[in-house]
Amino acid sequence: MTDIAPRRAEGKVLWHFTMSLDGFVAGPGHTMDWMTDFAFRPGLLQEYAASTGAMLGGRDGWDAFPDVSGIYGGEWQGPVFVLTHHPQDAAPVAGVTFLDCDVAEAARIALEAAHGKNVEVLSASIGRQLLERGLIDEIDLHLAPVLLGDGIRLFDNPGGAPVRLDLVHGGDRTAVVDVRYRPAAGG
Questions:
Q1: What is the DSSP letter of 68?
Q2: Cβ distance 25 to 154 under 8 Å?
Q3: Is the pLDDT of residue 41 over 50?
Q4: Rounded to two decimals, what is the model's pTM?
Q5: For a Cys-Cys bond, which of 24, 137, 172, 181 suits 148, CB 3.0-4.6 Å?
């Protein structure tokens, strides 16, 4: 398999998550305590911090983690947009804008604020809605060697049609990606 090219600022809408092997991007109640002790490719966080111009998330995720200072280990700073049906009860936070609008309008606002850099969508629900409307340019996933068994799925669409994807790197866009792990000792 060919390595993925470093992330660049291209004005794309990226649905970006670290995900468990069983498809969860957060634990129950949006918990993220499972996201420890994983080794990422050197420089990965810096690539995302440099190529990201704005973040777009949802209210449930925001309420679980209302601190923007830790995004990419504190290396990223920029506008954060939180899509919510009730912005009036959100406490004001510098650099965070609470939006009550259509998901496509929220993406447009975030892209404009990103000034040619990428917008990262950090919400499973918002990502699904944008994908349904053809507004996701790429899906960036980092598979973590863990099985959560419960939580917030990346893509939850009961009764919906399958969504086919093209592999961005490699020769065959329809290639299956092979991943092989074994249970860790003691855990």
A1: G
A2: yes
A3: yes
A4: 0.90
A5: 24
